[in-house]
Design brief:
It is built from 15 helices and 13 strands. The protein has about 500 residues and is of the alpha+beta class. It has two domains: about 100 residues, NADH:ubiquinone oxidoreductase Nqo5 subunit (Beta Polymerase, domain 2); about 260 residues, Orthogonal Bundle (Cytochrome-c3 Hydrogenase, chain B).
Length: about 500
C-alpha cells in the first residue's frame, strides 16, 4: 500500500505479509538510501498482534505501508530487523518492552524506558571508571540518567537511561474522549514543540474526518511552526554560548528569543503557541495589526541575530570550542536513523518539509539546509542558517496570501471512519514528528502512537561524545538539545 503524507487507509487494504516476506520487502526498500522507517509498532487487533511498518521515500515523496500478524500465545520469537538495519533498534526494543516479543539477533535488546535493574553496558580494565550524572539535574528539566565509561578523562562509552516518569501520553489519547482534551494533550507532549506536535495531531484528525483546512489556515500553522523554530534555535544558540562561557553571545540571543516568544504571545496569549493550533479552524486568525507587529519584530530579530552570529562564528575562542567537537559522520547518522537537525548537520538530507510536504509546504518549495561536518560547529551553524530561512519563509507566506477572511472555528466533534489506519508527519524544530491512529469497527480511536524526533536522536548524542573529553559533554548535549519528555510517552 502506497500513500502520501498525511494518509488514511482502511485496514482491509493494508497487505498482511508472512514475516519472512515482510523482512525481505523491508530489505528491498532499504536498498534505496533515501528511504527510512517513520513508524513501526504493534496494535492488538482481533485477538492477534498486528505489526504496522511505514517506510518513507525522501525522493519519491511517498510512504509504503505494510504489516504482518502474529498470535498472542505463545508470544512470537522473530528474527531481528536490527541485525541488518540498525535504525530499527529502537522500534524493536519498544515492541519488546511493551509486548514481550523477542527479536533474535538484536544486538542490544533492552527496555527503552526505565525499569529496575536496568542492564547497563559495562567496560572493565585498568584506568577505566564510571561517572553517573542524574537522573535529577540542577534545573527544571525532566529526569534523565547518563552513565559514562571513561579512561581517564576520555569517554569510551555513554549510555542514556530515560523514561523515569512513565507519562502515559498515548494511553491518555484513548481515555480522553473529547477533541479539545486531545488537542490540549497533543500540545503538551513536548512543551518546547507545542506547535509542531499540535500540527501533527490536528492534521491526523482532519485526515481521518475528511476535513480539508483552508489555504489561509494552513499558512498560519506554518507561520506558527516556523516562529517556534526561530525561537528555539535562537535560545539554543544562547545556551551553546553559555556552555563555552561566551556571555556576550548568551545574553544577546536570550533577549532575541524573548522578542520571538513574546510575539507568539501577542498572537494567541501563550508564549509557546498553546491554543493556537486546533482541528478544523483557529481561535486566532491573523489580523493586519498583528502582521505588522510580526514583520517589524522579525526584521529586528533578523538584523540583530545576524550581527551576533557574525561575532560568534568569527571569534577564534568560540570556534576552538565548536570545531571538531562531538563529530557524528554521515554514515553514523544514516545508520541510526537520525532525523531533523541531527541528520542535516551530519550530511543526511532529511526534512519532512521537503520530502513529505504538509500543510502550506505542499504549495511552497522548500530546500533544507544540510551541512557535512557533523560537529558542534555544524549544529550551531545550522541553527543560524535555519533561522534565516524561516524568517524568509514567513515573509513569503505573508506576502502571498490574504488572511482577512471569515475564520473557520475549531471542530471537536468528529465522525471518524471505522477500521482505519491513519498517519501524519510534520517537521518540528528538532525534526520528524510522527503521530498515527487506528480506529475500531465503530470509528473510535483504539490505538494512538506518537514518535518525537528524540526517539532516534539520543543515539546520536551517545556517538558524539565517544573519544571526547568528558568536559565536552555539556556542549555536545546542548548542541542537540533533545527532549526527555518527548521520549517518555
Amino acid at each position: 500500500m502506497i500513500g502520501k503524507n498525511p494518509l488514511v487507509v482502511p485496514l482491509v487494504e493494508i497487505p498482511i505479509f508472512d514475516y519472512t516476506v515482510f523482512m525481505d520487502t523491508i530489505a528491498d526498500l532499504m536498498k534505496d538510501e533515501s528511504r527510512h522507517c517513520v513508524a513501526y509498532h504493534v496494535v492488538p487487533l482481533h485477538g492477534k498482534l498486528r505489526f504496522f511498518c511505514c517506510m518513507a521515500s525522501d525522493h519519491e515523496k511517498n510512504i509504503v505501508l505494510l504489516s504482518h500478524e502474529q498470535n498472542t500465545s505463545p508470544l512470537p520469537v522473530l528474527p531481528s530487523l536490527t541485525a541488518a538495519h540498525f535504525l530499527f533498534h529502537m522500534y524493536e526494543r519498544e515492541i519488546w518492552e511493551q509486548y514481550g516479543i523477542q527479536f533474535i539477533g538484536h544486538p542490544w535488546l533492552k527496555p527503552v524506558r526505565v525499569v529496575e535493574d536496568y542492564p547497563f553496558y559495562s567496560i572493565e580494565g585498568d584506568g577505566v571508571h564510571e561517572v553517573g550524572v542524574g537522573p535529577i539535574h540542577a534545573g527544571i528539566i525532566e529526569p534523565g540518567y547518563f552513565r559514562f565509561s571513561c579512561n581517564g578523562e576520555k569517554v569510551m562509552h555513554l549510555e542514556i537511561q530515560l523514561g523515569f516518569q512513565h507519562r502515559g501520553v498515548e494511553k491518555l489519547f484513548l481515555e480522553k474522549p473529547s477533541g479539545i482534551q486531545r488537542a490540549v494533550l497533543a500540545e503538551s507532549i513536548a512543551g518546547d514543540t507545542s506547535v509542531g506536535h499540535s500540527i501533527a495531531h490536528s492534521q491526523l484528525m482532519e485526515t481521518l474526518a475528511g476535513i480539508i483546512s483552508s489555504p489561509a489556515l494552513q499558512c498560519e500553522r506554518i507561520i506558527a511552526l516556523e516562529l517556534e523554530r526561530i525561537a528555539v534555535h535562537i535560545g539554543d544558540t544562547a545556551a551553546l554560548c553559555t556552555d563555552i562561557a561566551y556571555q556576550f553571545g548568551q545574553v544577546v540571543n536570550e533577549a532575541l528569543r524573548t522578542i520571538v516568544i513574546n510575539t507568539t504571545q501577542s498572537w494567541c496569549g501563550n508564549r509557546f503557541g498553546k491554543g493556537l493550533v486546533r482541528t478544523g479552524g483557529s481561535y486566532y486568525p491573523l489580523k493586519k495589526d498583528f502582521i505588522l507587529l510580526l514583520l517589524a519584530n522579525l526584521k529586528e530579530v533578523e538584523e540583530r541575530f545576524g550581527q551576533i552570529t557574525h561575532e560568534i562564528f568569527t571569534n577564534p575562542s568560540v570556534l576552538s570550542r565548536f570545531e571538531g567537537i562531538g563529530k557524528v559522520s554521515p554514515h553514523q547518522a544514516g545508520m541510526i536513523g537520525a532525523v531533523g537537525m541531527a541528520a542535516r548537520s551530519s550530511g543526511v538530507k532529511r526534512d519532512i518539509r521537503w520530502s513529505h510536504p504538509f500543510q502550506a509546504f505542499r504549495k511552497t518549495t522548500y530546500e533544507p539546509v544540510t551541512l557535512h561536518q557533523g560537529d558542534a560547529w555544524a549544529r550551531a551553524m545550522l541553527r543560524k542558517l535555519e533561522v534565516e530561512k524561516s524568517i524568509q519563509l514567513i515573509g513569503n507566506l505573508l506576502s502571498g496570501h490574504d488572511f482577512e477572511r471569515m475564520p473557520a472555528h475549531p471542530v471537536y466533534e468528529l465522525t471518524l471512519p471505522a477500521s482505519s489506519f491513519a498517519l501524519s508527519l510534520a517537521e518540528g524544530w528538532r525534526g520528524e514528528i510522527m503521530q498515527s491512529a487506528v480506529t475500531d469497527e465503530k470509528g473510535n480511536i483504539m490505538n494512538y502512537k506518537v514518535k518525537d524526533p528524540s526517539f532516534h536522536n539520543w543515539m546520536a548524542l551517545t556517538l558524539a561524545v565517544r573519544n571526547q573529553e568528558i568536559s565536552d559533554f555539556p556542549l555536545c548535549n546542548k548542541s542537540y538539545n533533545l527532549s526527555y519528555c518527548g521520549h517518555d510517552l
